[in-house]
Amino acid sequence: MNSAPHENEHGLRHYLTNKYWVVAIALFCSVLWGSAFPVLKVSYAELGITPDDRSAIIVFAGIRFLLASLFIFAVIILGIRQSPKVKWKMFPKIFLLGLLQISLQYYFFYNGLAHTSGMKGAILSSSCIFFVIVFAHFVYANDYLDRRKIIGLIAGFTGIVLINSGQHFTFDFSWQGEGYVILSGLVNALGTIIAKRLAKEVHPFVLTGWQMLLGSLLLIAVGLPGLKPHALVFTNKAFFLLIYSAFLSATAFSLWNAILKHNKAGKITVYQFMIPVAGAILSAFFIPGERLSLNMLIALVLVALGVIIVNYPVRGQRSEA
C-alpha cells in the first residue's frame, strides 16, 4: 500500500524530466495563463462588476482560487494518492508564498485588469519574467546579468513601453490599471524565487494547493466586509467561466511548479513568451472592441524576442538549476 505514492511520483517524474514533455507542459501552462485575460474580462462584464468595485473583484478572485485549491487537493488525494499534510514549520513560508503569488499578485492583477484592456494586461504581465532575471542576479551566484540578458531586457521592456503607447502612440498610463498589472508581475517574481526553493521541500502539487487555499482565504477575508448585496449573481455563463478559471489556475500553477522543481529555470522560462501572445490573440477574438493593431503586434514580437534572448542557452555556460 505504501509503495503506491512512490510509484506515482516516479511515473510523474518521467514526464517532468523528459525534454519533449517539458516543452509540451510549459507551452500548455502558458496558453492556459494567457487565456485568463479574456476570461476575466468577459467574467467582469457577465457579472456586472465595475472597475471600481474592488470588494467584488477581490472576492471573485478569492472564490476562484479557493475552488482551484479544492481541485488540487482532490487530485493529490484521489489522483496521485499523496498526503496533503505539511510540517507546521513550513506554514509560515507557504503563507508568505500564498500572500505573494495569490493574495497580492491577484489583488493587483484583478484590479489592474479592470482598468486596462485584456491585450495590454497580457503584455504587461510578462514583466514578471524580467523581474525574475534581475532577482536571480542577486540570489544565484552563477546567474548574473550579462550583455545578452541586458539586451533581452531592453527588448522586452521596449515592448512593454510600446504596448502602453495606445493605438495612436500617445502614452496613456494609469497606476490603477497598467501600474497594478506591473506590480502583480513584481510580487509574482518574488514568489517564483520562493516557490523554486520550497518545491524542493514540499511536493509541488501540495505546495500549490496550500498556497492557493491560504491566499484565497485572505482575499475573501479582505473583500467580504465591503461586498455589496447581490454584487456577485452568477449566470450559467459566469459560473462556467469561474469553473474554467479555477481549473486553469489549478492546472497551470501545479504543473509549472512541478517542472520548475525538476528542470533548470532558464530552460523553461523561455516558453512563457506564449503567455502574452496567447493572451493578446485570445483577447482580440473574444473581447468585443479589442483587436490586434500594428503596435500590439510589434510589442508582442519585442516581448517574445526579449524573453528568448534572455533565456537562450550560451554554449559552455551553466545556469542555476
What can you see in these coordinates?
This protein has 321 residues and is mostly helical. It has 13 helices and no strands. The chain has helices spanning 3-17, 19-47, 54-79, 91-113, 118-124, 127-139, 147-163, 175-198, 204-223, 236-262, 265-269, 274-286, 294-311. Helix 3 (54-79) crosses helix 4 (91-113), helix 3 runs antiparallel to helix 9 (204-223) and helix 12 (274-286) packs antiparallel against helix 13 (294-311). The protein is globular.
Features of this protein?
single chain; 321 residues; mainly alpha; 13 helices; disordered N terminus
Question: Biggest β-sheet, characterized?
Answer: none
Strand content: under 5%
Kindly report the oligomeric state of this protein. Answer: single chain
Q: Fraction of residues in helices?
A: over 70%
Terminal-residue CA separation: 33 Å
Which spans have pLDDT < 50 for at least 5 consecutive residues?
A: 1-7
Number of domains: 1
What is the SS-derived class? mainly alpha
- Radius of gyration, CA atoms, in whole angstroms: 19 Å
- H/E series, N to C? HHHHHHHHHHHHH
Query: With helices defined by DSSP (H or I, 4 residues minimum), what is the helix count?
Result: 13
Shape call: globular
Number of strands: 0
Please state the average pLDDT score.
80
Organism: Candidatus Desulfosporosinus infrequens
Pfam family, one: EamA
Main location: membrane
Protein name: EamA domain-containing protein
